[in-house]
Amino acid sequence: MQAELNLPQVGDRGPGFAAPDHTGASASPLADEVAGRPIVLIFGRESPAIAAVLKRYAELKDAFASADALIFPVLGCGVEAARELRERAKLPFAVHADPLGDVARLYVGAEKSGSAITSVVMDPNFRVLQIVDDTSNRPHADIVLDLVRQERALRPAAPLGMHAPVLVLPRVLGREQCRELIDMWHRPVRTWHTDGLTSAGYNDDKADFKVRNDSYGKVVQYVLRDPAVSAKLDANFARKVADEMQRAFQTRVTQREVYRIACYDAEESGSLPAHRDNVSKMAEHRRFTISINLNAEEFEGGELRFPEYGSQLYKTETGMAVIWSCTLLHEVMPVTSGRRFILGTHLFGN
Fold first, then answer.
1. Between the chain's N and C termini, which has fewer beta carbons within 10 Å?
2. Which of 227, 217, 195 is nearest to 263 (CA)?
3. What is the DSSP letter of 180?
4. CA of 235: how far to CAs of 139, 209, 239, 256, in Å?
């Protein structure tokens, strides 16, 4: 049961693997020559049903090629059966063998590694974009093609000028999680007032509370002390953020400050002036800041800006995280409509 709980979910980076293709040659979706593009992993036993699914993928091969997506079937059969299926169905892509179901169990678990057919769509950074199973009324290939086209539209090829050395991660939080955190911010709790530069007094509060910045910017932060909620967020961080920080920054953080749910309200021009996150004596331990957008569709303005690296405005999707070094000068532009909610904290340790 524990193994089932550890199956990759949407936003998780998938486990690496290699499997022989229909010629017997070892192949991996993480090999340099194929990485950096959407990859569609298709799991199922060799059968007429999987052949029909793969034929539909083959019919749409030109559309998948236009989206720069790689079709990567991994079937519960041997190399010879994979070769025969590919020839019989006239498939234009490689078919990979997983006779013992070892790879399938990594992605779909023991129960679905039998007769079920599952398409796991990976984004160009090999994170799970979506999992498509047999509960859908549409062919897998049609659903998956829509997904990879949408993903491609979010990654337009365009010249890039100066930009801040930040890490941007999609799908760190799901929409349901984001809504739960916004609802939590609305809970009636004690509110402390601060100039935004000091925290004398309220850090001794053991329960959840709010902090209102009265002069240094305009923001109301809900300080999250609830151990159950914090533990759930920590587990999510471990799955979706820690390894990405290790890959991008070659560093691993081991500690954090308390999570804060911040609200920037257009009615008071919610914003924060340009600042760094580790200049005071009490903050010098901080190494990185993480900010996760909770409701991108419900406000205007409120973008992040790193003025030392240009005037680009970072406006991210719901559930997307931006991570940066605490030494970088940054600001939150005024919210001009609605309310901007984010989840944030500061990270340190190694």
1. N
2. 217
3. H
4. 34, 23, 6, 13
Helix (H) or strand (E) holding 204: none
* pLDDT tens per residue, range 189-202: 998 887 766 655 55
pLDDT given at position 4? 52
d(CA 39, CA 254): 31
* pLDDT of amino acid 66: 94
Please measure the distance between the N-terminal and C-terminal CA atoms of the chain and give it in whole angstroms: 32
Instruction: Quote the mean pLDDT of the chain.
Output: 91
| Separation CA 92–CA 151 (nearest Å) | 23
- What would the mean pLDDT of 177-182 be, rounded to a whole number? 98
47-56, 154-163, 287-296: which range is least confident on average? 154-163
DSSP structural state of residue 3: H
Do 107 and 42 touch, CB atoms closer than 8 A? no
- This prediction's pTM: 0.87
Q: Are 164 and 309 in contact (CB under 8 A)?
A: yes
DSSP one-letter string for 59-77: HTHHHHHHTT-EEEEEEES
pLDDT tens digits, one per residue of 270-310: 999 999 999 988 899 999 999 999 999 999 999 999 999 99
Between strands 118-122 and 191-194, the pairing is: unpaired
Q: Which residues pair with 339 in a beta bridge?
A: 265
Judged by DSSP in three states, 259 sits in strand
Token pair 């967020």 is found at 233
In this prediction, residue 112 carries a pLDDT of 65
| DSSP, res 94 | -
Contact of 324 with 330, CB cutoff 8 Å: yes
Burial label for 47, CB within 10 Å (0-12, 13-18, 19+), is middle
CA 28 – CA 32 distance, rounded (Å): 9
| Residue pair 298/338 in contact by the 8 Å Cβ criterion | yes
How far is it, in rounded angstroms, from Cα 126 to Cα 21? 20
